[in-house]
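Thread amino acids onto this structure.
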């Protein structure tokens, strides 16, 4: 079956704008994780927007078959609605991170409100998994939108912001276009992002094929936590927060 969703000119323009903005942000905000260390070529697979009843369990089956551990950046209110799915991800040995409590751009939330939302997301994950809330410190801002001020606050509160290297808009395009995007953009030490709960080809099916193709090219995988430690903990950054 082919999935050929309609793509509006506004969606294309927005995607192009975000890509350009991220190139600028990456240079200005080195304290976020955008890519791994050249010393470790392993790539990190991650998923945003879960947990999703349609996708999460199917993804766990695919990841188990490939022997790959991934990082799931979950939305707090969805964890609260589907705690068993978040618990299944954790029990299967995958890493859990935060994608906000609601899917709202961080700069649009007041500073106290953002802090409260992130703590609510931590508590939802803690309730689902039995871990300490502080265990869940990796954060990917919804839409990838943040400012230098947002980054300073995340650092002060003990959170670790994670962005991406490759993010194909698989919910807006055909499977083959997604495979072509990844083949063209994937590189050593990359962070690949896919999404749960969105239209288009089922993400578990895409992930199965993507992993097979990446494995055929010799890619191996690591977690966001290990990637962060390789980049930031091995040697302190000289660049201060802006």
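Threaded sequence (242 positions):
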């Amino acid at each position: 079956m082919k999935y050929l969703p309609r793509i509006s000119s506004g969606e294309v323009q927005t995607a192009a704008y975000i890509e350009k903005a991220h190139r600028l942000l990456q240079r200005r905000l080195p304290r976020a994780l955008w890519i791994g260390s050249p010393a470790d070529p392993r790539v990190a697979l991650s998923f945003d927007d879960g947990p999703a009843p349609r996708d999460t369990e199917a993804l766990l089956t695919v990841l188990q078959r490939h022997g790959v551990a991934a990082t799931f950046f979950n939305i707090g209110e969805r964890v609260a609605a589907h705690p068993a799915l978040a618990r299944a991800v954790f029990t299967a040995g995958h890493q859990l991170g935060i994608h906000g409590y609601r899917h709202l751009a961080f700069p649009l939330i007041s500073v106290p409100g953002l802090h409260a939302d992130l703590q609510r997301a931590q508590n939802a994950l803690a309730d689902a998994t039995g871990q300490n809330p502080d265990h869940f410190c990796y954060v990917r801002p919804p839409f990838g939108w943040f400012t230098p001020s947002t980054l300073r606050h995340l650092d002060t509160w003990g959170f670790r912001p994670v962005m991406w290297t490759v993010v194909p808009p698989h919910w807006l395009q055909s499977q083959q276009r997604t495979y072509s995007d990844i083949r063209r953009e994937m590189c050593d030490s990359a962070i690949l992002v896919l999404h749960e709960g969105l239209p288009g080809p089922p993400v578990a099916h895409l992930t199965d094929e993507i992993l097979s193709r990446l494995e055929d090219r010799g890619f191996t995988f690591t977690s966001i936590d290990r990637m962060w430690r390789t980049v930031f903990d091995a040697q302190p950054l000289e660049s201060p927060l802006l």
